[in-house]
Amino acid sequence: MSDIRWFHVRRWTARHARFFEFIYAAFEHALVMMHPLFQRLGYARMERPVAAAERIIKGFLFDTQMCGSCTLGATGMVCPMNCPKRMRNGPCGGVRPGGFCEVKPEMPCVWVDAFNGSRLMRHGERIRDIQAPVDHRLKHSSSWLREVRRIKGSKPGGSRVP
Amino acid sequence: MSAGERDVQDPTRALKPGHSSAGHLEALLRSGEFAVTAELSPPDSSDPEEVFRRARFFDGCVDAINATDGSGANCHMSSVAVCALLTRLGYSTVMQVSCRDRNRIAIQGDVLGGAAMGVANVLCLTGDGVQAGDHPQAMPVFDLESISLLQLLRGMRDEARFQSGRKLMLPPRVFLGAAENPFAPPLEYRPQRLAKKIAAGAQFIQTQYCYDIERLKTFMTVARDLGLPGCAFILVGVGPLASARAAEWIRTHVPGVYIPDAVIARLAGSQDQKREGRQICIEIIQHIREIEGVSGIHVMAYRQEEAVAEIIQQSNVLRGRVPWYPGLDAARAGTED
Ligand code: SF4
Asked: What ipTM describes this predicted complex?
């Protein structure tokens, strides 16, 4: 039952991907502004409360799976980890007619929603970026904090298809 | 009439400039020939003779043999073992690697082993879900997916390193392939996905079964606009349908196979459905051969392997060229006498 409700919410957010992209960018900006605070309190100490908040907020809106390497902005505001094959770079070859999932035929394919979401977004072309495989050690950790540290440390991101 | 050569088995042999492998398939495609590959379904047996028997169906009509890796999530002899057996006889093989059953540690080991045994081509697949096969209770691994697998193997080959960074003494010299399904939704996204696979390292593509030429043409038009055929060799998947009932079963049970109603109606309306299925396949091949940017076909004749030679002959797709097979040298010597 809960399964059905979740994918209604996440499909709704995908249909409003442009709006959530904007909100998300604003929110990320706010988090980056908090970097000095995070530093003072210590990133290690912030990990648990921030990860918990992240799980609740993103879990409700996007049904995210907390893989720790968040790609929402590059995947049409749809969490690719809801794909039963955990595809991070586009739909598998088994998508059913009407866009339903090969593995769970009652569920719309995550990547059909992602592709539609990306077309609404301002930076929808990021769906062409190649995403690295998940680092399984990062599961359940906060990708928000990791992103802030990345931006502040300006380490390189994913590679882009020409 | 020109004849092919035996595949080279030595993993340490020097490569031709611009080549990634010492294999015959890569050389053939680079020379601009229209290539034919075919899928061998590995036996439910530990008998090597059964593998050789299945390969012989393709003698003289196929440039490389794909050994599937638990296709449809059904258990069979492993792809790496089938390839190792076939390379012993000089066959050119394509080792299929699916991400469903093995994680990155196991896959990297298998690719090194395959290359050591003369495998020159590796097809990187995500794999069908376990629900499709005979062990639905199994753990689906999916540590990687096709695109991250391509990147990983390209790294092993070009940088001579495992993903961990640890150095390889001799990298696997393999020609890397990927699959694409131009016939599954979201159709508009498919050419972009192909571009992504090529950017990740795919050098040849073997597509899902084509039963709809128009859909293929649309896909190829966009692919050409993106400049993709110049970056990778595209081989289109084909195969004969045994009957209207079989076709109906395949399209409902085998993931990703699209068969239009018109094809099923044509089969259902024929006297000899098996014949008609092969005839449809021949016609599709002839259409495919004329499409700009297509470099070959990939024949998947599940349970109809004995029909492959006839289909290839009648479609005249090889234009008289004879691919190498273990008995060819003897056959040639015989005719010269
Ligand atoms: S159909 Fe879509 S959601 Fe289902 S396994 Fe394939 S890519 Fe994932």
From this structure: 0.91
In a domain, A74, yes or no: yes
Evaluate whether residue A97 is within a structural domain. Answer: yes
Contact A84 B143 (CB under 8 A): no
pLDDT digits (tens, 9 = 90+) for B130-140: 999 999 999 99
Q: How far is the CA of A87 from the centre of ligand 1 (A)?
A: 7
Secondary structure of chain B in HEC code, one letter for each residue: CCECCCCCCCCCCCCCCCCCCCCHHHHHHHCCCCEEEEEECCCCCCCHHHHHHHHHCCCCCCCEEEECCCHHHCCCCCHHHHHHHHHHCCCCEEEEEECCCCCHHHHHHHHHHHHHCCCCEEEEECCCCHHHCCCCCCCCCCCCCHHHHHHHHHHHHHHCECCCCCECCCCCCCEEEEEECCCCCCHHHHHHHHHHHHHHCCCEEEEEECCCHHHHHHHHHHHHHCCHHHCCEEEEEECCCCCHHHHHHHHHHCCCCCCCHHHHHHHHCCCCHHHHHHHHHHHHHHHHHCCCCEEEEEECCCCCHHHHHHHHHHHCCCCCCECCCCCHHHHHHHHHC
Note whether residue A157 is domain-resident: no
Which percentage of chain A shows pLDDT scores above 90? 63
Q: How many domains, chain A? A: 1
User: No. of H helices and E strands in chain B?
Assistant: 12, 8
Please give the pLDDT value at position B124.
Answer: 98
Nearest CA to ligand 1 atom 1: A101
Q: What is the pLDDT of residues A33-79, one digit of tens each?
A: 999 999 999 999 999 999 999 999 898 888 888 999 899 989 999 99
Can you tell me the distance from the alpha carbon of B177 to that of B153, in angstroms, rounded to the nearest whole number?
Answer: 10
Over chain B (337 residues), the average pLDDT of each successive run of 10 is: 64 87 96 98 97 97 97 96 96 98 98 97 97 95 97 98 97 98 97 98 98 98 97 98 97 93 98 97 98 98 95 97 90 69
- What kind of fold does domain B1-9+24-180 have according to CATH? TIM Barrel (3.20.20)
Alpha-carbon gap: B53 to the closest alpha carbon of chain A (Å): 30
Question: Containing domain of residue A135, as a range?
Answer: 3-152
Enumerate the residues of chain A whose CB falls inside 8 A of the CB of residue B127. 85
